[in-house]
């Protein structure tokens, strides 16, 4: 798919991997809608790249529908959805104070899994109804994680959510294949996102030392580069690509 003048939705686009993706795709000529609940940060990103910023809580059906409709009015039907909104809080299933509160589990599942699915069902419906662009109609991209495969202690909710997205990738690719809509996922390793920016240098160095090569934290721009390649390579479909420097997470 050509990126120039193509309408794109990036959730979680105000920071981290989402911000880098929005910047990269806009530089390739895409019309980018930055979707986030961090309104000021989203507006700053959108102004910098010549896109639009839209308030969007991916877990809320009405908020998601409104944001997609606003993006469509400004840019036309989105042909690419990049799901970057997500997050986690580490907590053991059974800790010193007893079992994890069920709400703590469901919050993470709701944001990472239900939020991505909510955006996907709405964006895919519009892609499927649109005219094809060459041999395809659109692309859905999930951000999963290496935690989907090597979940560490305290990552039950996050691993479950990201593992579900990894499983959904081939299923949805098959379901949407008749319409020419591709579904892909990227499983990042340890990336220098806003959370790690605040970590002490010794923590960052310790994490980097566990990565075989290159022995450093991943750069958000490298994630964005891969998103751009996936978008322009129509034979990539139904696959989860690990982007991790060959790291395999230890139990803790």
UniProtKB/TrEMBL annotation:
The keyword Transmembrane does not apply. GO terms for molecular function: oxidoreductase activity. Pfam families: adh_short (PF00106). InterPro entries: NAD(P)-bd_dom_sf, Sc_DH/Rdtase_CS, SDR_fam. Keywords: Oxidoreductase. The keyword Transit peptide does not apply. Belongs to the short-chain dehydrogenases/reductases (SDR) family. This is NAD(P)-dependent dehydrogenase (Short-subunit alcohol dehydrogenase family).
């Amino acid at each position: 798919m050509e990126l120039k003048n193509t309408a794109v939705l990036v959730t979680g686009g105000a920071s981290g991997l989402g911000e880098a993706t929005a910047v990269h795709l806009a530089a390739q000529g895409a019309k980018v809608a930055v979707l986030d609940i961090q309104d000021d940060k989203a507006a700053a990103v959108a102004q910098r790249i010549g896109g639009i910023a839209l308030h969007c809580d991916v877990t809320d059906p009405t908020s998601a529908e409104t944001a997609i409709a606003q993006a469509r009015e400004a840019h036309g039907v989105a042909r690419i959805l990049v799901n970057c909104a997500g997050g986690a809080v580490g907590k053991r299933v059974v800790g010193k104070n007893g079992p994890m509160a069920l709400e703590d589990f469901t919050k993470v599942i709701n944001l990472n899994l239900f939020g991505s699915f909510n955006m996907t069902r709405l964006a895919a419906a519009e892609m499927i109804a649109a005219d094809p662009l060459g041999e395809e109609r659109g692309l859905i991209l999930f951000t999963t994680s290496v935690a989907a495969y090597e979940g560490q202690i305290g990552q039950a909710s996050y691993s479950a959510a990201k593992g579900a997205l990894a499983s959904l990738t081939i299923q949805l690719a098959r379901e949407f294949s008749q319409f020419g809509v591709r579904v892909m996922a990227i499983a990042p390793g340890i990336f220098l996102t806003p959370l790690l920016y605040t970590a002490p240098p010794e923590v960052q160095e310790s994490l980097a030392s566990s990565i075989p090569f290159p022995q450093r934290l991943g750069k958000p721009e490298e994630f964005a580069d891969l998103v751009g390649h996936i978008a322009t390579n129509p034979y990539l479909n139904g696959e989860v690509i690990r982007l991790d420097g060959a790291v395999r997470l230890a139990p803790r």
